[in-house]
Amino acid sequence: MPPFKDEHILIIAPGSQVTLAQLGLPESFTPARFRFPTRMFPAEKKGEFEPYKIRERRPGGKPSNGTKAPKEDVEMKDAELSAPQGTNAAPKPENGPQEAKGEPADGQETNGETRQEVQEIFYEEDVTSDEGAIYPLENGRIADWQCFFALLTHVYNTLSPPFHTPIMLIAQPAWSARDREAITQFVFEKFKTPAFCMMDSALAVCYGYGTSTATVVDVGKGKVDVTAVTDFLVNEHGRGIALEGCGGDYMTDRLQELLRSKGFSREMCEQLKRSNITEILPVGTPLPGTAATARQNTNSAASASTGRPEKGSKDAVPGNSGDDTPTGPGGANGEEDDEGVLDVAAIVSGNTSEFLANREKEKAEKSSTKKSSTDQSGKPVRLPNSKKEKASFQFEEYVRLQSEKDVANVPGRYIRHTREIEVGVERFLSTTQKQKPGDRLSSNIFEDIATQIHHTILAVPDASKRSELWDSLVVVGNGSKIKGFTQALLNTITQKFVLSPSATIFTSEIPSNFSTPMPTGGTNTPAPGQSGPLYNTPGHGVNPLLVAATHSNNPASGNMPPGTPSMDPSMASHYRSTGHSQTPTSVKTLKPPEYFPEWKEHSNSNAPGTSGSAGLSNGPNAGPGGPGAPSGGHGMEEVVFLGAQVASKVVFVIDQGLSKGFMSRVEYNENGPSAIHEYAM
Amino acid sequence: MNPSIPPSTAEYGGDEVSAIVLDPGFSTTRAGFAGEDTPKSLIPTYYGKYTSEGQEKLIFSDDVFVTPRPGLSVHNPMGRDGIVEDWDMAEKVWEYSFTSRLTGPKPGNPFQNGLNDVVDGELPTEMEGVEIEEKPLADSPLLMSECGWNPTKAREKTIEIAMEKWGTPAFYLARNGVLAAFASGKASALVVDVGASSISVTPVHDGMILKRGVQHSPLGGDYISSQIRALFKINTPQPITITPHYLVYSKTAVDAGQPSQAKYKSIPPEKAPDASYRTLLEERTLSEFKECVVQVWPGPNKLSATSPSGSLNEEVAKSSPGRPFEFPDGYNQVFGLDRYRVVESLFDAKAAIPDSESPFPPPTQAQTVPELIKNALNGVDVDIRPHLLANVVVTGASSLLHGFTDRLNQELMQTYPGPRVRISAPGNTAERKFGSWIGGSILASLGTFHQMWISKKEYEEHGPTIVEKRCK
User: Fold this and answer.
1) Could you report the per-residue pLDDT of B350-385, keeping only the tens digit for each?
2) Can the peptide bond before residue A70 be classed as cis, meaning omega within 30 degrees of 0?
3) What part of B 303-322 touches A (C-beta under 8 Å)?
4) What distances in angstroms separate CA B107 from CA A189, B138, B448, one per listed residue?
5) To which protein family does this belong (chain B) (predicted)?
6) From CA A261, how far away is CA A220, in angstroms rounded?
7) In a 10 Å sphere around its CB, with 0-12 CB exposed, 13-18 middle and 19+ buried, how is residue B207 labelled?
């Protein structure tokens, strides 16, 4: 088979929330070029799916939500406003069977829209809600096969690779053997790919980190996977697969629980969680504002830094869909409301950009005057987030362009709207125990994850690897993005599991006939006399004698009574093979690789583009054509994708199948889908 | 290949399905596809049960160990003798072992799984009903293992579940002793299987067990745990209680032998898991203890005897460096001679540490490993004894105890000085743990094995009794 080219490799990494995809390997590996929300909407025909929510619009329908008016952020306007001028020119997804017949508007109908018989029916893309969406992956498991295949097809069609395209698919740990076979069959028969590689996500992370041995903790949306990888081999036994209720959703739920009384919606909590003011403080750090003295200080600092006049109310109550007083940034309430009323007629009549530009200008002027006034009031001391009692984050939502009277023929248009919402110390409590902990007795999610890691590493059959596994923890997944997550996890492990090598044990107990220590432990002990690399001595500064005693893998003479008849060498070697010591003596995370500059940039993205509900509307070019521009703001949490690129390069381009890295079409035709297990990495 | 030319439309038309090998044990249940080198699925045979919001919930798999839940109790469908006691739950646990990682909960409806083009209107509505009744193993033959003393009734029940509940197209039931021999590449062997609940010695000749020679005793891994508990009770400087991780909030480093200063978690009594849960998690710590500390006195002679050179074995053992162990609550201690004592009773019944509260009665000499082997050999034909002794296969996870095979070797050489004694024990941990599964994997993937399967048709014709005739 001719070699594959870099630019022809298709990589797909499905996750419960976002599916990453890319066609071709760039010179220097970059974060995934395409991010598809992992969800589809039921199409008009049963059993078919659409990537976008298409809603039927009927005249007389009231806008269901978002009664607040748009503000400055009108990134979407070109895409959104140009299209609907003509009749029936709704944004139409380019793929999937597209019959523009009357599609029942899922969800929206029930929203109390008055149904009326009308002559003309419009279709519009509903960007504001993902109601009715089907998420084919639930906690990594494939919940809806048809939908999952529809998603794969959508990804494939959007990237539209040429025929000679090998496919690399990242497999979720939760997929069973039969699942993998079904996917293999689908990929070969539907996409007619010449070569297919299915790679375990934990292994991909190891490729990304350039390490052969690691404990991969993948914090996803609703679950956590804990995998011990030794020598590029995934240890299936004891693997923590889809530990439920430990992922990002837990934190959102918890935030919502804390903030519900303050009128926070789930979407707000979701964005709060993604914002950079949400942190997990180290244990023992007092929450800011708990001390009475600190209170005043931080209060003023916080409010001043956001440039907002102090409010009477204790906590800012964010305006919930405009039903109560909105507290927008940079403006008092009255002005905000004023701005809310947009003259839609003016927009519709055509001069939209001009109109909006004018409004922008006005607003800018207003806010600048305001800012200057606060600036004069004195420079506040800038405190780090963890010291502030309150902080605010940018909340983005879609707001419908509203018309006072129902304009029958105008499809609803939406505008991205940003406002600032202030939160108190709740933002530090996202991982604490819920009020209703359900069926769990553990005190927080870190305890669950730490216990799982302990269990997983203890289940690794090669005991000599365990110490190394503890020292090469890799925490990935977007759920772990929240500041302080990894540190908090390490702290929990240290607190609960790390052993205390109290030096007194060793000094008092080491017998006199104890000869030169051999600080190598476990099964892989090299032949006697060959002092192997000190791979079992983690660099935690313990003296070698101590390590030797801990590992107690003494030269045979230490254990054997003098005069014992020497056994044959094979016996001797396996006599030693079972001796090893307790772990962990230390726990560390691996350093991420630094040779891919694009991956190094960490940033916290708060845009709804990263969330499932509005993932496709990331920019002006995010029309029906595709899922937006190359996304920024995703760092090493998605290292699985970096690993997928590295592995693709190795498997498809360098190795070219010599070491059975991928399954070729010929092999598929001969052996069928079950042969994927021989290739699955 | 030109990227713009569509590939040929030739498609796979075969229907090769590899068999599933299920090896149920007392402590763990192993399942995987035949032909692979380790079972893909390894779950504890223990399952958890608790009530949440008025509903009874069952927990399978490792989650039992990881997440404590209110009122969680732990059960095992297997009896200590390796024979199923609770068939309903055994079926569920076994089913979970292969559905979770291998086959998936149920095969999808072929019309709706996206692999077939469905012509408009060709989807009959009755298909929905059919799909629900689809059985989990409808397209995989199943090879199961059993212990050598499994009664006929249990064997018939097993095939009944496989055929009727799981709908497997072909079935075979093999003795795990035979499978372990196959795993070492032998058709004739004396298989010493040290499991969690029992030790068994099975003479295998030409791929058949010699039933009269099969011996078993309850001195398995759990018995060793009970010995360790007995040791902890009389431990100096203070008795040790094991506090499992789930009860510890955080621990503080303390010096060896000093009382623990851990902070404990407070679980309200109405939410506390059942005592059986705590016992199970204590076993986790004990198995870590067994891995890291416990060692079998390598011999020669018993621990309490003198060595050939005249020195007391105990003295020698004492002088070897101790091994430290830290408990979940931070208490740590170095174990010297004691780490040999806890397993000595596998070879010398008199050495057992007495414990009146232990669920295990004090062992008799006949239950020790050397005696079991002796009795097993006495139960078989004189002619094949030397052959068996030359092929002693050691398997089972508890045989991984440090020094076990050395001691066994010493004991056998003393008892049978004449014939050539050869122990074969794989050094690879996985091969030792999954010996009988691996044998099953080899067996089920052999081309010649195909004629051995009991097909669904044969089962329907003869009923469950066919298993006695075909699986000898």
Assistant:
1) 999 998 888 899 999 999 999 999 999 999 999 999
2) no
3) 307-309, 311, 313, 316, 319-322
4) 19, 9, 29
5) Belongs to the actin family. ARP4 subfamily.
6) 27
7) middle
Domain housing B206: 185-218+365-425
Give the residue, B376 or A356, on which the prediction is more confident: B376
Nearest to B324 among A194, A438, A505 (CB): A505
- DSSP-derived secondary structure letter, B452: G
The residues that bridge with B263 in the sheet, in sequence order, are B250
- DSSP codes joined into one string, B368-437: SHHHHHHHHHHTS-GGGHHHHHTTEEEESGGGGSBTHHHHHHHHHHHH--SSPP-EE--SSHHHHHTHHH
Q: How many CB atoms lie within 10 A of CB A450?
A: 27
Cross-strand pairs, A228:
A215
Average pLDDT over residues A637-651: 91
Number of domains forming the structure of chain B? 3
Residue B443 Cα, gap to closest chain A Cα (Å):
19
Q: Of chain A residues 38-57, which have a CB less than 8 A from chain B?
A: 47
Dist CA B154 CA B146 (whole Å): 10
Rounded distance, CA B31 to CA B45, Å? Answer: 12
Per-residue pLDDT for A204 more than 90? Answer: yes
Reported as a single tens digit per residue, the pLDDT across B279-338 is 999 999 999 999 889 999 987 888 888 878 888 888 888 888 888 899 999 898 889 899
Of the candidates B66, B307, B425, which has its C-beta nearest A243's C-beta?
A: B66
pLDDT, residue A574, reads: 35
Paired sense of beta strands A214-219 and A223-230, if any: antiparallel
Question: Could you give the CA distance from residue B169 to residue B162 in angstroms, rounded to a whole number?
Answer: 9
List of residues 6+ apart from A368 with CB closer than 8 A = none
**What percent of chain A is modeled with pLDDT above 70?**
55
Q: What is the ipTM for the molecules in this complex?
A: 0.90
What secondary structure letter does DSSP report for A348? Answer: I
pTM: 0.78
d(CA A170, CA A168): 7
The residue to which tokens 């000499």 are assigned: B365
